[in-house]
Amino acid sequence: MTSVRNLCLEHTFLTHEDVGLIEELSRQLQAFADVSQSDVFIDCPLMDNSSAIVVAQSQPATSPSLYRTSVVGQYAYAQNEPAVMYCLLSGKPVNGARGISQEQRVIQQNVVPIFSPSGNVIGALIMEQDLSEKLAQERHVERLQETTEHLSETLLNVAMSESGMPALMQEGMVLFDAKETVTYINPQARSLLGALAQDEFKEGCSVQQLFGGELKRPSIMGESGHYQEELHAGGVIFELKAVTLYRDDQVIGGVMLIRDMTDLKLKEKQLIIKSAVIKEIHHRVKNNLQNVSSLLRLQMRRSKQDEVKKVFQDSINRMTSIAILHEMLASDGLDTVPFQEVMERIAKHIVSASAKPEQQIRLAIHGDALTLPSECAGTLALVLNELVQNCVTHAFRDRSVGNIDIALQVSGQMARLTIMDDGVGMDTGSGEDSLGKPHLGLHITKTLVQENLGGVLLVESDDTGTSIRLTFPLAQTADREELL
């Protein structure tokens, strides 16, 4: 078996001192595996930082292992183990992430970065546990919930057919016979009906008398066997639901449930008002951004310098991307948006606005559905704008045909956005294009990803094109939204 040192020196950028630290830690793996009852690994990043290699592995002696054979020397890819690559690139630990092992099993990973004395991430310590039992339990709970719902429905039908009267109910309950004469009123119903200031709270009165003749229908036992009404009386809003009871195909009476909906309706009204206000705010923000974009467009047309026109167009595209987001927020009235639709609209706009008339740039947008809070979606909208703008402006600068592929992938609590083109490439070390000009859009993107999303950005480029991947945790974006 290839030694830890040979694997590190052959496949990674680690120094001899770094390799010594990895070797020393690998000697402790068996103890870690036995104590945690987990398979434990050390992964080190490859030279291009696009994936990692397993340099050490220990199987627990205190519990069954997840692996039939050794995986030392095999690669760990971001699409299967996003938590590992995120840890290696960001230097942050990840707990409870799900991934796919080299033997194609669903696993749960706890990943901790390994640092060199200089503070660089030189590897990741990984503890893996089998999720098959947990997944089976989750499926069992889902089936149990479905069974419970069917059982509850069956018991309710049996209880009603036998005129059973639950003693503990939050709703008011009224039983009546075939002539709609009240035979029973539970304490909750008496308390709720007190708001009507009626005196007919005794058994023997009719259902209509119970509600002071305010019911819309003269009889609540229709052909359908169901009755539902929202009654406004005495400043109170009641929800009335009644079903007819049968025995041997003969009507024997019915049961009515009464619920006070006043507070709920008031809250619904307040939510509707707030939703309308939020929609109007987003609509006005969108209109204001469009107005500013129009003014900048007029200024751009007056300029005769191509560099100035480009600056104007970049600013217009950024504002348009945010305007698209606010338009969707205004349409739904919610504070979350489906980001795949945002990606499609922004990318198509950038290509349409920035490509030269003679250019044919094809877009391919695919991936997983992901709903994001407005703040996170706004950050990603700007990031997408800058990256697609870079593709159109720099990658296909001297070409008439080009392809841009945009993919969004979600794995557990990690998300990854990938933008690929088949253009001329750029210098990934200096962040400059082939003409030596710095990419302002790439600098903006890195800042947004690191500071707003807590994510990492990886750029790979050669003369066949450029691939930019940003990985960020979904849990952190949700936490940031809750703090606002």
Automatic annotation (TrEMBL):
Quote the InterPro entries the UniProt record gives: H_kinase_PdtaS_GAF_sf, HATPase_C_sf, HATPase_dom, His_kinase_dom, PAS-like_dom_sf, PdtaS_GAF, Sig_transdc_His_kin_sub2_dim/P
Q: Which GO terms describe its molecular function?
A: protein histidine kinase activity
Does this UniProt record's set of keywords contain Kinase?
yes
Q: Which PROSITE patterns match?
A: HIS_KIN
Q: Please give the Pfam families that the UniProt record associates with this protein.
A: GAF_PdtaS, HATPase_c, HisKA_2
Q: Which residues form the Histidine kinase domain?
A: 280-476
Question: Which reaction is recorded as catalysed by this protein?
Answer: ATP + protein L-histidine = ADP + protein N-phospho-L-histidine
Spell out the SUPFAM superfamilies in the cross-references.
ATPase domain of HSP90 chaperone/DNA topoisomerase II/histidine kinase, PYP-like sensor domain (PAS domain)
EC class of the enzyme, as a word: transferase
Under which EC number(s) is this enzyme classified?
A: 2.7.13.3
Q: Which UniProt keywords apply?
A: ATP-binding, Kinase, Nucleotide-binding, Phosphoprotein, Transferase, Two-component regulatory system
Q: What is this protein called?
A: histidine kinase
| Protein source organism | Paenibacillus aestuarii
